[in-house]
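USER: Write out one fold?

ASSISTANT:
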Amino acid sequence: MHITMTRVILLMLLLTGGSVVPVSADIYRYEDEEGVVHFTDAPTDNRFKIFMRDIKKDKRLRTTYKLTSTSQNLAEFEPIIDKCALEYGVDKSLVKAVIHAESGYNPNAVSRKGASGLMQLMPQTARELKVANSFDPRDNIRGGVRYLRFLLDTFRGDVTLALAAYNAGLTRVAQHGGVPPYQETRTYIDRVLNYRKTYQTN
């Protein structure tokens, strides 16, 4: 499973030594023709779109991502998320976080590598999960949550490894004996876990 971006150039304000630090400005992003995603807190090009509102500290002084305009469609899909999360025993805040990171709640999202729908299922993965139409929110979410359940079971409940496999693939996680040394994957895991914390408090 791969997210839309092929590689990420992260604003230094967001990450310092791999740790998220407080940001007091909105963050904007755009993906160029080569698939490189650019972030900034001071957009100088109209291609930049709002990506994340300013980050706030939680009670433990750790930062979490505020929900952005990309998640305004959450209410539309929440009943499906709740049903599938209950069916497969997956924390619904984790499901919401994965959807947020993968597609920004755009059911028509398609990555450069061919992943599609809300949970960005690759064609082969969708076939294996018997997802008839990846652009159908019900089919896509059900397939994605079922896949998350499989990964969580595979890694004995280790959410970090499950997310690594969701992003980079099971084979690469196995090859490296853990989270692959890819900045894209590490950034993805960090984003999803932070989104999850925010959904847990909303």
The two ends are 27 Å apart (CA to CA). The longest helix spans residues 137-154. Residues 1-24, 53-71 have pLDDT under 50 and may be disordered.
